[in-house]
């Protein structure tokens, strides 16, 4: 069992919250979720590049910004600049599953996480970090956060860089003091900077606006019809709420964050047409040969540990989440804003 204990409840409103990757998809949504709780004492830590992801921060309420390397250096050098930080939610990483430079991934995703985790332990700070469902490798059944880590076989360097820290945390005892979140297929506003790692919802929306149709991969397994391949999709608003909840609770070790329901690609893209009032046109195309041996036909998070932590809120149904994303953010070109009307979830996993 990879979760070993429960530490006391953590009052996230006391002291500053540092969110690394705070301008990214999940990071900015976590800042949004904190703002909606009335928590504005937030330090955004990121590596702002030439992308436009800085725009995600404009509607949010933050107290300060620090470059990622400066933040880690200040913690290690015991500088006073960030002594008011009591919570670190570490979501910054290179998330490209196609990145081939394993050394770059290990520096960004393993070494940097190790630096922050060790300083958090030394200072008795609450530390929550992003692992990934990609660490499960080719598994299509029983994707449980209780699986023994030594049995997992990541399929790419990104997944390995995340898995390596999970193993390190368990071996060194850090897992007893922090919480690693295995995010499944997160989609939603503030992902426009992610290039090819954008969700299928955003890619499909762009295809519909450009050509009126969506392209999905054909199936190469007889038990799955075209478009009936399944994933565990979760709206970023739900993922952010779960993340803040786990930071507040005493969860340690690894926790899956997903919907707990496997949905088809067709179920994901059809609400886009419906929301836009466009005729449904879906084209099935050949999958590249290099992907066929690694492609997962079904993934679904086991979320018993999340529920056992006390998270009992209903999740946003997929069709409602997609419609909200398209109608409220993609069409008007908006970012997440703390003033946005709350989504009223009507069903739970």
Task: Give an account of the 3D structure.
- The protein has a domain at 16-189 and 233-258 and 301-315: 3-Layer(aba) Sandwich (Rossmann fold), CATH 3.40.50.720.
- 34% of the residues lie in helices and 15% in strands.
- The protein has ten helices and 13 strands.
- A seven-stranded parallel beta sheet has the order 3-2-1-4-5-6-11, with helices on both faces. A two-stranded parallel sheet has the order 7-10. A two-stranded parallel ribbon has the order 8-13.
- The protein starts with 15 loop residues before the first strand and ends in a 19-residue tail after the last helix.
pLDDT averaged residue by residue: 92
CATH A-level architecture of the domain at 16-189 and 233-258 and 301-315? 3-Layer(aba) Sandwich
Sheet with most strands: strand arrangement: 3-2-1-4-5-6-11
- How many extended strands? 13
Question: Total helix count?
Answer: 10
